[in-house]
Amino acid sequence: MFIQTEATPNPATLKFLPGRVVLEEGTADFREAESAAETSPLAERLFSVSGVTGVFFGYDFITVTKEDGPDWQHLKPAILGTIMEHFMSGQPVMAKAGLGGLPVSGEGEFYDEADEEIVSTIKELLDTRVRPAVAQDGGDITFRGYEKGTVFLHMKGACAGCPSSTATLKHGIQNLLHHFVPEVREVEQVL
């Protein structure tokens, strides 16, 4: 098994490409070991590597976030070994019992019913133009809400805590959305 790695715009996050499907559908974001314990055997294993503070699964990639201190040259071999061992063991990435606890698209969204058409256009733009680009950097962005010209988005994976995430939101995504949906005045990040 050969696992490629790619740098992300977030220096604390590295993208691992195992050359196979990681998650068939959706994404999974783990910000602490406790959230991984019952849900994902692979995330639980990755959190056992000293210095790992976040794990994110996409369709064909895994992003791992590290704490300040250890550098990637010391962590990367342990993470690569953990990913390889897991896939060689034949264990699933996600525990079947834990899948029900994952947030699904649409969960926790808020907007006025009168804005349904605007929200539909925003979601389509996010899905077709923003999310594929963000996935290239090892992350994901999901719609959370729309209120009085402000779009609220949740950033996951490499995007969460990335130094350039504010610029991505304010200059890239905000400008794109405003261009196609003039009612959009601002884009804000929510946790």
Task: Offer a quick outline of the entry.
The chain has five helices and eight strands; from the N terminus they run βββααββααββαβ. The chain has 191 residues and is an alpha+beta fold. It comes from Nitratireductor rhodophyticola.
Overview of this protein structure:
Residues 3-90 form the Scaffold protein Nfu/NifU N-terminal domain. It comes from Nitratireductor rhodophyticola. With 191 residues, the protein is of the alpha+beta class. Helix 2 (41-47) packs antiparallel against helix 3 (72-89) and helix 4 (116-136) crosses helix 5 (165-180). The termini are far apart. The strands form 2 sheets. A 5-stranded antiparallel beta sheet has the order 1-2-5-4-3. It has a 3-stranded mixed beta sheet with strand order 6-7-8. The chain has helices at 33-37, 41-47, 72-89, 116-136, 165-180, and strands at residues 4-7, 13-17, 28-30, 52-57, 62-66, 139-147, 150-157, 186-190.
Give short descriptive properties of this protein.
three-stranded mixed sheet; 191 residues; 8 strands; 5 helices; alpha+beta; five-stranded antiparallel sheet; elongated
